Amino acid sequence: MISQIHIKNFKSIVDLTLDLGRVNLFIGENGSGKSNILEAVAFANSSVNTELNNSILALKGVRNTNNELFCSAFEDEIQDISLEFIIENYFIGILFRINKDDNSWREIGQNKFLNKLTDFISKNKDFIEFGNTANSELLFTNDALNHQYWNAQIKKNTPLEIGENIKKEFDSFELYHSYRYSAYFTRYMVYSPEASSLRKFEEEGQIKPLGARGEGLFSLIKSMAKDNGSLEQIKEHLDLIDWYEDFVIPKDLMSNEYRISIKDRFINSDLKYLDQRSANEGFLFLLFYIVLFSSKKTPQFFAIDNIEASFNPKLCAKLISTLVELAKKNDKQVLMTTHNPATLDGLNLNDPEQRLFVVERNIDGHTIATRITEKPKLDSPMKLSEMWTKGFLGGLPENF
Prior knowledge:
alpha/beta
């Protein structure tokens, strides 16, 4: 997991260090910089092995703006953006500067860690190919990525000695971990699902398997149905919706049909199932999150902006505790924002893997974040939700 991020000069963030757990929840007033924290990570990993531009950032879930507005605007001159990460004692550092000639981004310093795999492939390009070519010896793969580029194989006509040297070099500790952590880091997304996207099962995003707005959910559910037990893991958590009884993927779907059949336990069993077009938003959002946290094909590290959208307050609390359970079971790490106090009641602050941060703007307007490590000591016991609304945690407007 990523244990620490350090962000400098990104939007409202001038200098911010966060020590992360597995599940990280950010609260604070509107415009405090919560979403900026999520987007800073996407900004950094979008540059790896690709050109950084607004189109790429939008696919990652970053709000589009003029390039210079990604930089902090507290000084007279535009500042370089610095982003640093620690992944299991490995350090990744990236520095960005705006090119004044064409207002584009220029990487002026990237830690060599992320370049090791690219350099290795380039050096051995005459002997390595990608895809599922027959009679080639598999060098490395990553099933979670589900993309041909990551199925690297040694070409069948490669001289034996060269092939053995390539395998030996790749198996070295540094190179293997460069590959492993690059995949972990670069697949990060900021998810902000929308009901309209979740209802249109036929639409898929450019980034697979799930787009930032929820595109591709049906295809992912279909692929999980082929894995023993994967679909059952989803179904067992959907009973958080009281009326839900079951859902199935119809076997008689036409090639141009994209739907699931959802059973409402209160409706006469002789009547037809609902589908995603008629299901309520709360069910669709819950389905999305359970699939996101359960699938082996979704990123291991990702963010969710406004996790509470479309949920009843009591369901918010139960949802968080459920997602914590799934994150641990399926080795996921997540950054989340919320404006619903009830969401906090699903956290257990005694568990170091669950962390709560209060995000605020200081007297100079800079985004700061304070970790709440335990409940404040009060005369009478309160839930975290009450503590927040009564002002004991901070993160509330003070101008009215």
